[in-house]
Write a structure and sequence with these properties.
globular; five-stranded antiparallel sheet; 40% strand
Length: 82
């Protein structure tokens, strides 16, 4: 599952960020923002226009991401919430 597919307010764990080629600036920036293996993430809200941008919380920080950016973040279910 990817972050763009995650239902709102459903916690999940980041597994990886997909690179689209060498020196992928977007993937590098997502990792710098905290989208790293083991971090809990959830979608807090969705924008009105095509549900974009997505307001995403990773750890205690919130970011607005485009769906195309969120689709690069691979997730696994959060075992603690199941």
């Amino acid at each position: 599952m990817t972050l763009s597919d995650l239902p709102g307010r459903t916690p999940a764990i980041v597994e990886s960020v997909q690179d689209h080629g060498p020196n992928d600036a977007i993937a590098r920036r997502l990792r710098e923002l905290g989208f790293v293996n083991g971090e809990e993430v959830q979608i807090v809200a969705k924008g009105p226009m095509g549900a974009e941008p997505l307001l995403v919380q990773v750890g205690f920080t919130r970011f607005a991401l485009r769906r195309s950016e969120a689709a690069r973040v691979r997730l696994r279910p959060n075992g603690a919430s199941a």
